[in-house]
């Protein structure tokens, strides 16, 4: 009886090991593939579609996106994006302390890289498993894609309104123009909704969106003088 159990566990372990190796190779190949191609659909986009919120998107290359848009999301979401390796440890510690003091109010500290990892490869949520996978995919895209590709994918897959994904669709929906024609003010207003795109109204802008976009514009003007930021936002 003992030998049968041992044999069963050995066979099960061999099967699990093969499945793990196959899954690891598959996800690695997918990460590499997405360095040049866009994801056919993300879990967040699929959920938005089946839940009735819609799915509007139009992937565009970096040269078809205004430099104002790149600068606006950096100013709004991740001001040290050109300099970190995927994680903003200082802000993560601040967020952890804040969440411990006020458990009912969750404060995030995700970088643009982490948001791309979450939105492209994973699902929305706060579980430890998802956060662990997010850290893994963040490390991998920083290693394989680099900052320019991460920014390009971010501006194409992130939700920028209820059922509106990507800067091209956002520009068309809010301002009836292409993403490459966005002004500083328009890009800042779109970036304003990113923390909560389903609730923050920018057409017409709510009082909060107006105040926030003015702050984003001030930050954009300040960051535009940074050499590393300038290299990134002007890159095609």
Structure description:
With 236 residues, the protein is mostly helical. The protein has two domains: 1-33; 34-233, Orthogonal Bundle (Penicillin binding protein transpeptidase fold), CATH 1.10.3810.10. Helices cover 61% and strands 2% of the residues. The protein has eleven helices and two strands, in the order ααβαααααβαααα. The protein has helices at 2-33, 43-50, 67-77, 89-101, 112-121, 128-144, 147-157, 167-175, 184-192, 207-223, 227-233, and strands spanning 56-57, 164-165. A two-stranded parallel ribbon has the order 1-2. The chain starts with a helix and ends with a helix.
Topology of this protein?
Layout: H1 2-33, H2 43-50, E1 56-57, H3 67-77, H4 89-101, H5 112-121, H6 128-144, H7 147-157, E2 164-165, H8 167-175, H9 184-192, H10 207-223, H11 227-233
Parallel strand pairs: 1-2
Helix pairs in contact: 3-9, 3-10, 5-6, 5-7, 9-10
Could you write a compact summary of the structure shown?
The protein has helices spanning 2-33, 43-50, 67-77, 89-101, 112-121, 128-144, 147-157, 167-175, 184-192, 207-223, 227-233; strands at 56-57, 164-165.
- CATH class assignment of the largest domain: Mainly Alpha
Order of helices and strands: HHEHHHHHEHHHH
CATH level-4 homologous superfamily of the largest domain: Biosynthetic peptidoglycan transglycosylase-like
Strand order of the largest sheet: 1-2
Q: What is the architecture of the largest domain at the second tier of CATH? A: Orthogonal Bundle
Mean pLDDT: 87
Strand residue content: under 5%
What is the percent of helical residues? 55-70%
Distance between the amino and carboxyl termini: 66 Å
> Under CATH, the topology of the largest domain is which?
Penicillin binding protein transpeptidase fold
Structural domain count: 2
Number of strands: 2
Rg: 20 Å
Low-confidence runs of at least 5 consecutive residues: 95-108
Overall geometry comes to elongated
| Secondary structure tally, helices | 11
Structural class by secondary-structure content? mainly alpha
The largest β sheet comes out as: 2 strands, parallel
